[in-house]
């Protein structure tokens, strides 16, 4: 399952960012995930806690925001949704030169931090 290696890369990126910002304590990682990213969301959600074990982000949550697939057709000069994720031709003119403009995202968009309250 390659989602574990993706989860490990997410954790590495979060740890690096947290360290650069003075050792932030992370409560949640927000991730934008497109349907054409080649990642199984459920497998990634399962793998994330395993990737976090023994690290400063252990116990944090992975919050996934799903995006939609969108195409741009140069013939129609329009952006549109594909008919299906398996048929990426333009649904208006059936042109096969449509480009994917959204849907391949796999990116960390935000970190929720734990603020330390003085006792």
Please explain how this structure is put together.
The chain is α+β, with helices and mostly antiparallel strands. The chain is built from 2 helices and 6 strands, in the order H-E-H-E-E-E-E-E. The strands form 2 sheets. A 3-stranded mixed beta sheet has the order 2-1-6, covered by helices on one side. Helix 1 crosses helix 2. The model has no long low-confidence stretch (mean pLDDT 93).
Keyword list:
alpha+beta; hypothetical protein PF0899 fold; 2 helices; 25% helix
Q: What does the oligomeric state look like here?
A: single chain
In terms of DSSP E residues, the strand content is 25-35%
Q: Count of DSSP helices?
A: 2
CATH C-level category of the largest domain: Alpha Beta
Could you give the distance between the termini?
44 Å
Uncertain ranges: none
Overall outline: elongated
Topology:
Elements: H1 3-20, E1 26-33, H2 41-52, E2 61-66, E3 70-73, E4 78-80, E5 99-102, E6 106-113
Parallel strand pairs: 1-2
Antiparallel strand pairs: 1-6, 3-4, 3-5
Summarize the structure.
The chain is of the alpha+beta class and 119 residues long. 25% of the residues lie in helices and 28% in strands.
């Amino acid at each position: 399952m390659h989602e574990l290696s993706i989860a490990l890369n997410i954790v590495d990126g979060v740890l690096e960012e947290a360290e650069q910002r003075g050792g932030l304590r992370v409560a949640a990682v927000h991730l934008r995930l497109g349907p054409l990213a080649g990642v199984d969301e459920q497998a990634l959600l399962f793998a994330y806690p395993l990737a976090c074990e023994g690290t400063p982000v252990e116990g944090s949550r992975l919050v996934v925001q799903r995006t939609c697939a969108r195409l741009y057709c140069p013939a129609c000069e329009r952006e549109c949704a594909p008919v299906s994720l398996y048929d990426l031709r333009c649904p208006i003119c059936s042109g096969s030169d449509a480009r994917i403009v959204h849907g391949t995202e796999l990116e960390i968009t935000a970190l929720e931090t734990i603020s330390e309250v003085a006792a």
